[in-house]
Amino acid sequence: MSGYNVLWVPGMDHAGIATQVAVxxxxxxxxxxxxxxxxxxxxxxxxxxxxxEHGGTILNQERRSKAVTEAFVRLYKEGLxxxxxxIVNWDCTLQTAISDAEILAERHIERSLxxxxxxxxxxxxxxxxxxxxxxxxxxxxxxxxxxxKHHHLEFINIFTDDGKINSNGGAEFEGMPQFTxxxxxxxxxxxxxxxxxxxxxxxxxxxxxxxxxxxxxMLKSQWFVDCENIAKLALGAVVSDNNKKIEIIQHQYEQELxxxxxxxCDWCISRQLWWGHRVPxxxxxxxxxxFKDLGSYNDHWVVGRSEQEVVLEAKxxxxxxxxxxAQDPDVLDTWFSAGLxxxxxxxxxxxTPDFKAFYPTSLLQTGHDVLYLWVARMIMLGxxxxxxxPFRKVYLHPMIYDSHGQKMSKSKGNVIDPLDLINGIxxxxxxxxxxxxxxxxxxxxxxxxDQNQLNKITLDVTRIVNxxxxxxxxxxxxxxxxxxxxxxYSPHKFRSVESMPLICQWLLSILNKAVxxxxxxxxxxxxxxxxxxxxxxxxxxxxxxxxxxxxxxxxMPFITEELWQNLPRAKGIKKSIMISEYPSVVEAWTNERxxxxx
Length: 598
Description:
Elements: H1 16-31, H2 35-38, H3 40-55, H4 62-77, E1 81-91, E2 96-98, E3 107-114, E4 123-127, E5 132-136, H5 142-150, H6 178-191, E6 198-205, E7 215-225, H7 228-239, E8 247-249, H8 252-262, E9 267-268, E10 270-271, E11 281-286, E12 301-303, H9 307-317, E13 323-327, E14 331-332, H10 334-338, H11 341-344, H12 353-358, E15 361-367, H13 371-386, E16 391-397, H14 418-423, H15 427-435, H16 441-452, H17 461-485, H18 502-516, H19 535-552, H20 557-565, H21 592-597
Parallel strand pairs: 8-16, 15-16
Antiparallel strand pairs: 1-2, 1-7, 3-6, 4-5, 7-9, 10-14, 11-12, 11-13
Keywords: Aminoacyl-tRNA synthetase, ATP-binding, Cytoplasm, Ligase, Nucleotide-binding, Protein biosynthesis
Family: Belongs to the class-I aminoacyl-tRNA synthetase family.
Domain Aminoacyl-tRNA synthetase class Ia: 1-62, 64-430
């Protein structure tokens, strides 16, 4: 409307872990099978069926997938993506690494601190000043992992992928779930006379938001992004005094982003899921390798854009040797592909006309909860791969939470369907929707309890109803004003403002002020005072309707388009309000003296 060539880019990612969990729950509820029972291909087919049913039809996104593969390959070739054994957040129920985003606000619990050690073989950290010591578990704590790396300690993992004790935990406890084993260890210490008592110790416990299982710190071989240097690129764009490239709104989040970038850790981007972008890496197993398991040798990985490309590179790396290749079964973190959105949506890695015209974009609008997960990573990847920041401004809007202080989420059942507000729905209907969902029993009961106590939900539904009523008032006001125009009215070239009645001059001056201050407020109520219908008065009414609707259109596109289409048509007017010119100040209409007099 203002004459700019505008591109609006809405986005929806594949919601890797959330989608897979939903489908796994559905399979278990309806067929009593797991994804492993039906195999990868059938499970992915089930995923597509579910996604198309609940998320609308998704077209083949080969271009987006190509961008993800290209980004991985380029970053790997530059040494910015690597594979290593490091401590990750591990969900024993889902059996995958998860990001910090999937961990709920950690719950405070009271646990006993056992004073006597569990194993014969332990590492101790000694303080030469206070003559105290603490045991170290380098394979189960990120800070102690760094100590272990520095001192070349042995890394002893005591858990299987599903959270049971392995052979390193002792034959007596092998196969026990982790919490059962804790009690068994305590009893074993008592039986041997090694138990020296316990004391209460309040601590935080990470809970996975998808499975409600306790998150364990586990040593795993995963793919990581080395974030140190690309974070410096992003920092320069945010904090530079002379060449600041990105403005963060609200400004308090700018300091949060800066602190996160300054203290950034390497980013684990691999997930042990089946739904998502497959890691474009193949493992080479040589005929004479002593160990044949995938990943046994870290230098046997080859990264490429296709299997054919990988075979050619493997022949060069292992010249004259017989080998087989197998693609890594893992997929990439959803936020890796989401972080490429400003690039991939414009056709990158090709330099398309869209990329030339619209990169970098002007404004990103999103919730403040994804500042680190998405915004920061878009900035880092955009600057590294696109050569510039992906956007000039970031507007972070507030979030809507439920009565328990939790973000509204379909997977928790605490959302409000806009269509239910528009069409209305009974409490029984709300309960029925929950009964057909994939919610766990505890989440289902909590959601139903909230539906019975809607007055406790932070979102005030009556406010939304008031907005709808305001739209009704706008409809009635415009139709009332149009009756004043009469059936014979046709807009024509505007007369000199000085020749108009004072009331018309006053109205135009007030309207000018609304345009200048961008105050989208209906002044139509004043029109009811115009008891006489002369040409000047009818022109003023038409101008009010036309400009008022155009002012409101960006915020209320549908109702303003409908009302505007019913206005008497002026010569040369556009076919749609959407492509009409956005109102600007007409200096000749401004008359402060008349405003004061009237």
